[in-house]
Amino acid sequence: MIIAHKRREERQIIAEKMSTNKEVLLLDFWVSPFCLRTKIALTEKGVAYEAREEDLFGGKSELLLKTNPIYQKVPVFFHNDKPVLESTNIVSYIDDAWPSPPLLPSCPYGRAQARFWADFIDKKVFDGGNAIWRSKGEELEVAKKSFIEIVKQLEGALGEQDYFGGESFGFVDIILIPLTSWFYVYEKFGSFKLEDHCTKFSAWMERCAQRESVSKLLPDPEKVHEFVIMMRKMHGIE
């Protein structure tokens, strides 16, 4: 009886996912950690989707310009033809639209804490890291120290837990782990090793990288490095 009931529940979950999977589309860019957030969240939920690569330098699609006229950037996520913008907002939407397995904690305080650290990550990590490859000389040293301090703050929030939500890979991990695909770039241009400063955070990175939803989607660090070299030339840094 228990097994039969469990199988009925599993069939119901699959049916619900199938019924809400219509027109699941992502306007994507391969090196964008923000697009990667969406892909990891969907993979964790077991939701099939189409990722449509955008040409951000040669000409953005009419669909992108039409559905995100304010920022004109990726990701743009479509569910049943309705666009959802901004990656953290998209991950929240995915968690609401496909509740199982949940990404946010069940208690209000846990959810509030997760949203606080997601906001901190959005405001600090990517811009802080990019300041390293955009800088030279003394400015580079300042940017490097600032970035390491940001990661130390995150390491403090992680504490002795396996993941930011505790024992389970969840919302904050999905918001943060894609940004680490650029950390190799920061280390190369900043001439440092993050592991020397933040051992627990580095262990968290390795732990997350062992998840299939992460390992199969993270871009090759060397290719990200090549992309940033191109960006430096475009900005006249080289």
Can you describe what's shown?
The structure is a single chain. With 238 residues, this protein is an alpha+beta fold. The chain folds into 2 domains: 2-97, Glutaredoxin (3-Layer(aba) Sandwich); 108-234, Glutathione S-transferase Yfyf (Class Pi), Chain A, domain 2 (Up-down Bundle), CATH 1.20.1050.10. It is 60% helix and 7% strand. The protein contains 12 helices and 4 strands; from the N terminus they run αβαβαββααααααααα. It has helices at 2-19, 33-45, 62-67, 87-97, 108-133, 137-158, 171-176, 183-190, 194-197, 199-209, 212-215, 221-234; strands at residues 25-28, 50-53, 76-79, 82-85. A 4-stranded mixed beta sheet has the order 2-1-3-4, covered by helices on one side. α2 links the parallel β1 (25-28) and β2. α5 runs antiparallel to α6 and α8 crosses α12 (221-234). The longest helix has 26 residues, at 108-133. The protein is globular, with a radius of gyration of 19 Å. Mean pLDDT is 92; it is low at 13-20.
